[in-house]
Amino acid sequence: MTQHPMLSGDRFRLGTFSTNCSSGMTPTKVPERWVNSWDNNLKLAQMLDEAGIDFMLPIARWIGYGGETDFHGGVLETMTWAAGLLAATKNIAVFATIHTAANHPVVVAKQMATIDQIGHGRAGLNIVAGWNKPEYEALGLTLPDDHETRYGYAQEWFDLIRKLWTSDEHFDWDGKYFKAAKVKGDPKPMRGTVPIINAAGSPQGREFATDNANFLFTPAIDLDRSKAEILELKAQAKAKGRDVKVLTFSHVICRPTEAEAKAYADYTAVQNADTDAVDNLVRLQFAHAHSFPHDLLAQIKHLFALGHGGFPLIGTPDQVADGILKLHATGFAGTTLSFVDYIEEFPYFRDNVLPKLAAAGIR
Ligand SMILES: Cc1cc2nc3c(=O)[nH]c(=O)nc-3n(C[C@H](O)[C@H](O)[C@H](O)COP(=O)(O)O)c2cc1C
After folding, report:
1. CA 306, 310, 24, 280 torsion: positive or negative?
2. Residue nearest to atom 12 of ligand 1 (CA)
C-alpha cells in the first residue's frame, strides 16, 4: 500500500483548521464570519481536495468562549465530521481531534479504524490531553492540575490504542487508568496506524509528542524563537530514534493590494472584534496551558482577535507567499490556513498564492 498522503513526500504541508467551529478562527462580529454548517464543510472540503490541499484539522470543543457571538459555541463533532468528509473526498487527509479524557480508547481505536476504511487510508488523529478546565467541568470531568498526570493518562490511553492496532490476539489490559478484558482491535487502520498530531506546549507534553506523534503543532509568534524551538524538538525526537515534523497555524487575509488586506484585518479584528470572547480565549489559554509564550501578551491578544493566535499572512499574494516561505525557512513542515469566510476567500488564495509556492519549489 502506498504511504499515507500526510506522510508521503517533502512538500510544505498545507491544511485548514477549525472549519467545524462557529466563526472558524476569528472571534469577530462581522456578518460574513464563518458558518460551520455541514454543507459549508462539505463544499469547502471538495474545493480543497481538488486544489491539492493536504489536510483538514478540526478543533474539538464542548463549550463556547462567550461574548456576543459565543465564539466556538457551535461545533461539529470531529469523528463524525471526519467520517463524512472522508466519504466525500478523494485525496485529502482528514483528522479527528480527540480529548483523551472524554473518549474511551477501545472506542476510539475502532472509530479510527472505521473512518480510515471510509477514506481508504486517509484518516489521522489529533490527541488532546486536556487544558480547558471549564470544558472539563461541563463534561463532569476533573482536569488534573499537573501535567504529569494529564500526559501520563494520555500515554496509557494511546498505548492501549496502539496495542489494539497491533495485536492479533485478544488481550487483557490492567493499567493505572484503564482496565480491559479480552479485547481485540478488528478492524485495524489500513496501514496498522494513522498519522498522529499533538499540540503540546509544556515540557511533559513535548515528551509525549516526541514519543508518539508524527507532527507537533505549535504557534509561530516569533520566528527566531520558533527556529530554536524546532531544532530542539527535532533533536529531542532524534535522541529517541524518531522523526517529528513541526507544523503551525496561520490566518490568511489575501487581497490584490496590501491596503485592502490591512483594512479588512482592521475591520474584522479591531472594529468588530468580539472583545469579550477574545478576553476569555486569552485568559483560558494562559490559565491552564503552556502553548503560548507568556511574555508576549499584548501582541498575542491582537493575534487572537485576528485568527486565534495564528501566524498572520496578511497582504498581497506575493506577501502571503513570502510569509509561507518564511515559515518554511524557519523549519516548519507545514501550516494550517484559516480565513474569515473559507469558501469565499480560499479560491483567491488557490489561484494566486499556490502557483507562487510551486514556483518557489516548496509545493
Ligand atoms: C494548533 C493547536 C491545536 C489544538 N487543538 C485543540 C483542540 O482541538 N481542542 C482542545 O481542547 N485543545 C487543542 N489544543 C490544545 C493542545 O492540545 C494542548 O492541550 C494545549 O496546547 C496545552 O498544552 P500543554 O498541555 O502542553 O500545556 C490545540 C493547541 C494548538 C496549539
Report:
1. negative
2. 128
Rounded to the nearest angstrom, the distance between the alpha carbon of 223 and the centre of ligand 1 is 20
Cell numbers at 4, concatenated: 499515507
Round to whole Å and give the CA distance between 330 and 199. Answer: 18
- Of the listed ranges 31-40, 117-126, 289-298, 301-310, the least confidently predicted one is 289-298
Q: Give the mutation target among 18, 77, 131 for probing the ligand 1 site: most ligand atoms within 8 A of CB.
A: 131
CA-nearest residue, atom 1 of ligand 1 = 217
Ligand 1 center to residue 134 CA distance, Å? 15
pLDDT in tens, 43-88: 999 999 999 999 999 999 999 999 999 999 999 999 999 999 999 9
DSSP letters along 116-163, please? HHHTTS-EEEEEE----HHHHHHTT----SSHHHHHHHHHHHHHHHHH
What pLDDT is attached to residue 292?
Answer: 66
pLDDT in tens, 206-230: 999 999 999 999 999 999 999 999 9
What are the chain's domains?
Answer: 13-359 (3.20.20.30)
Mean per-residue pLDDT of the chain: 96
Cα(165) to centroid of ligand 1, in Å?
25
